[in-house]
Amino acid sequence: MRIPPFATALAAALLAVACATTTSPTGRTQYIGAVSQAELDRLGAQAFTEQKTTKRQTGDAGQKRYVGCVVDAIVAQLPPAQRQIAWESAVFVDDNPNAFALPGGKVGVYTGIFTTARNQDQLAAVVAHEIGHVIAHHHDERITRQLGAQAGVGLVGALVGSRYGEGASQTATQISGAAAQGLFLLPNSREQESEADIVGQRLMAQAGFDPRQAVDLWQNMIAASGGSRPPQWLSTHPDPRARIGELQARATSLMPIWEQARGAGRRPACG
């Protein structure tokens, strides 16, 4: 029985790469390294390709240019290693106000986000938040945690032996599903979401997008949810209203960075 690509890639990564510790952009200790950066980028590209084969992409050239413009402006402010990646964006036809970014420079935006991100600055808040997950190594961190827990019950051994037994399909599905979910399907932890807020709001300011608009975005999200549970994109954040207070305070401190960016000619005109 054929083992799905996700399963093979993750099994190889777990066997070949030891875990390590690093420090996140906000100073917390992270455990990463179950997947090498090359493998992580390959998995991100594969997940993005699968997303494009299962979800319809917009035929609206204006939407594609709009998203691409915002992504390019944010990427221009990344550290040199991340800027060298060939970043790619896609707009998917889906009413859910959602977006994601994957290792290897892949950004996906759902058309539903345009109903809540009502200008380029608000869209930049979404895109910068998602890219923040990538540059903060959150995908690596989550997969390392998942595989570390599964390794304790002999996951790799089960995978290798499964090609000779009736459990092949079940095991392969378990691992490939964990890989896809670890990359972008499952919600991120609140800790990671808060960190992506911090990284993303600073990135948008450096790119010349108004960091105060991140607050307006959240207010739009709350309004769109009717005051009940926020949309999927925000489902694991702390209380949205408390989050608005943090975004407002950070926006004030980021105004000099935004003004400096504007003074340096970084004045995005995406739409």
UniProtKB/TrEMBL annotation:
It comes from the Bacteria. Transmembrane segments: none annotated. One of its GO terms (molecular function) is metal ion binding. GO terms for cellular component: membrane. Residues 1-20 form the signal peptide. Binds 1 zinc ion per subunit. Its cofactor is Zn(2+). Pfam families: Peptidase_M48. This is M48 family metallopeptidase.
